[in-house]
Amino acid sequence: MSEQDHDYELVAAALQGDADACSQISNSETTRWLHAVLMKRGASDTEATDLTADLIADCFGAKEGKPPLLEKYNGKGKLRAFLTRAAINRLIDLKRHQKFEGQLPEHLRESSATDEFDLVAGDTVTEPEQDHLVELLRDALLHAFSKCDPLHLVLMRLVVVHGVRQDLVGHLFGWSQSKVSRAINSVMTTIKEETMEEILRTDPWLDLEWDDFLNLCRSSTSFFVGAPSQQERDRSNIHVK
Amino acid sequence: MHSNLPSGENFATISAFLSTFAPEVSGRSSDEVTPFLKQKLQSLAAGELNEEEARNISQDLLANENAMQTLAGLIIKHP
């Protein structure tokens, strides 16, 4: 059984109220690890502690009319990747909210929500799981693509996505294979540099390495696939309310 | 399919991620290839366009996944 299958069964059992499964998911190893993930990405110790505690609590308990967080886990990736994404999402939400509050006039800070506040800030209370992370990754990439030589980007797509051999691509303009290779590598360098710069511009506090970025793209792609079908749930004997 | 280039795997990861968004978000539609664009693609595949001419149609190509597939097919079919 793969780790993902194991995780999926574990989550299913937890959602059905299995105390041992809940305990395995929320044990100290998980909380220490989530805390470290958040600290590494730019959270303070207090922020990491609070976010981790909230996240673990929300995994199992319905809150403000929302189902338990774990109901969103579709088994398409590892549970740790799912929790990492959820944790970073909340960190982004927190930091952006802090930044916004810092920009508010004094009389609006720490006051109860007003129409003006709600209209400008976005409703983080009712939409805590808005996927800021995915939006950040996507927007940074689209920005980076806009900075690439479009012809080189086409060549990259032909080779990498459509499987056209580099020598055939080179024939289009009488290029050597190594020139095609250099063009493609230069596109990737531009994408990497522009993506990381854009993230720094958007969320300067977020400490993200390129490999982190790619891993988050991978896990986001997995979890985007959606919730398992009824057939898959039936096969796993899962009946989520 | 993502080649042996060191960059290939990373680009494949990014492409897979972006392909999960709606075309209007990811910038890649699946519109039908217009006769004008198809003619340009045939010229490109036949090696009849210079780099600047190819660059001029690149944005149209990047915005239309069908056009990319058409071009890839033409290049592979008529090396």
Short description:
The complex is a heterodimer of chains A (241) and B (79). Chain A is mostly helical and 241 residues long.
Task: List the topology elements.
The complex is a heterodimer of chains A (241) and B (79).
Chain A: H1 3-15, H2 19-25, H3 28-40, H4 45-60, H5 79-103, H6 115-121, H7 132-146, H8 150-161, H9 166-171, H10 177-202, H11 210-224, H12 230-235
Chain B: H1 6-18, H2 23-26, H3 35-45, H4 51-62, H5 65-77
Keyword list:
heterodimer, A: 241 residues, mainly alpha, 2 domains, 12 helices, 67% helix, 0% strand, globular, disordered C terminus, B: 79 residues
Structural summary, described in words:
The complex is a heterodimer of chains A (241) and B (79). In chain A, helix 3 (28-40) crosses helix 4 (45-60). Chain A has two domains: 3-130, no CATH class; 134-240, no CATH class. The radius of gyration of chain A is 22 Å and the shape is globular. Chain A has 241 residues and is mostly helical. Chain A starts with a helix and ends in a 6-residue tail after the last helix. Chain A contains twelve helices and no strands. Mean pLDDT of chain A is 82; it is low at 111-128 and 225-241. In chain A, 67% of the residues lie in helices and 0% in strands. By secondary structure, chain B is mostly helical. Chain B has one domain (8-77). Chain B contains five helices and no strands. Chain B is globular. Chain B starts with 5 loop residues before the first helix and ends with a helix. The model of chain B has no long low-confidence stretch (mean pLDDT 85). Classes of the chains: A mainly alpha (241), B mainly alpha (79). Chain A binds chain B through residues 137-138, 141-142, 145, 149-151, 153-154, 156-164, 166, 168-169, 171-174, 181, 184-185, 187-188, 191-192, 214, 217-218, 220-221, 224-225, and chain B through 1-3, 5-8, 10-18, 20-21, 25-27, 44-45, 47, 49-51, 54-55, 58-59, 61-62, 68-69, 71-72, 75-76, 79.
